[in-house]
Amino acid sequence: MKWEKYTLITKTDVVDIISASLGDIGVEGIEIEDNVPLSPEETKGMFIDFLPELPEDEGIAKVSFYLDSEADNTKLMEDIKATLEELKEFCDIGDGVLIKSETEDKNWINNWKQYFKPFFVGDILIKPTWEEIPEDVKYKTLIQIDPGTAFGTGAHETTKLCILALEKYLRTKPEAKVLDVGTGSGILGIAALKLGAECVFGTDLDEMALDAVMENMISNEIGMTEFVAVCGNIIGDKDVMDLAGYEKFDIVTANILAPVIIELIKTVAVHMRKGGIFITSGIIDTKEADVVLAFKKSEDFEILEINHLGEWVSIVAKKRE
Ligand SMILES: C[S@@+](CC[C@H](N)C(=O)[O-])C[C@H]1O[C@@H](n2cnc3c(N)ncnc32)[C@H](O)[C@@H]1O
């Protein structure tokens, strides 16, 4: 799909009012570019794989938005121009001139790809589908991944923690049946299969994740019966719960945020075999105590280990025999 990109060059201190005013008249997907570094508070709880080095902040910002080039945008453009004129009366937004350019999906959705290079997690070489295997690199297991718009290049600390736990526990449970809640790109399910799991059932709330899983299954030559992924919430959605099955899984992975993990602690045990392993991550260190408490309150689980990478935490627990 082609998009018309409109960019307003303005000042950092007025981007909030500009984007709020444009949002009020129906402009979606507003993008702000500036050189203001993210504060530690802002990055907490966000899944950011790579933080680029920024030049010095000179107070200049670009506010951009995209309109479908095939839609009739006449009325919306009139409203946008009127809104900018109105704003000029109250604050210094610059000259208010919108610079137009044309772009395609891939230009702005795929820009991050230049930062994604092959790397190891344990014995597994993870590489983007579009990169060559580096010369002279020796590896036991290869995962090729393109997350598309889903989460899961493998480079995030939380994903690494889960893969390392999968390596460890699949050694004691070869041919395990694995449930991957919040599968994203499917990277944990694919890692599990490459490490010897028999089959994976993945769930995600994001429909786009299923496309990514399918593409990554093909790139990694994984059969349709080995990895089944569904869109839906295994926490409380009976259809998804039934599809997953009960008393069945040897290993569950869930790399989601702490509040979701806490809900899973209350609900996921019904899907697991006794002695099954629950690998969790996505827990920022400030929430570690909350998740530990939820495990301690649970009659179903005992904690086996807690691991840290950067400010992220992984807790591995076992379903009581
Ligand atoms: C941090 S990503 C993890 C992706 C991948 N598993 C990894 O480890 O890199 C979390 C994923 O969980 C999904 N998610 C959030 N809440 C969920 C829920 N209740 N059930 C299923 N998926 C959920 C999000 O859409 C997102 O794709």
Automatic annotation (TrEMBL):
Q: Which CDD domains match?
A: AdoMet_MTases
* Alphabetical keyword list: Cytoplasm, Methyltransferase, Ribonucleoprotein, Ribosomal protein, S-adenosyl-L-methionine, Transferase
Q: Where in the cell is it found?
A: Cytoplasm
Q: Which reaction does it catalyse?
A: L-lysyl-[protein] + 3 S-adenosyl-L-methionine = N(6),N(6),N(6)-trimethyl-L-lysyl-[protein] + 3 S-adenosyl-L-homocysteine + 3 H(+)
Task: Please give an example of a GO cellular component term from this record.
Answer: cytoplasm
Task: Write down the EC number.
Answer: 2.1.1.-
Where along the sequence do coiled-coil regions lie? none
Q: Where does S-adenosyl-L-methionine bind?
A: T159, G182, D204, N255
Task: Give an example GO molecular function.
Answer: protein-lysine N-methyltransferase activity
One of this protein's GO BP terms? methylation
Its function, per the record, reads: Methylates ribosomal protein L11.
Family from the record: Belongs to the methyltransferase superfamily. PrmA family.
In Swiss-Prot or TrEMBL terms, this protein is called Ribosomal protein L11 methyltransferase
Q: Which organism is it from?
A: Lachnoanaerobaculum umeaense
- Lineage summary: Bacteria, Bacillati, Bacillota, Clostridia, Lachnospirales
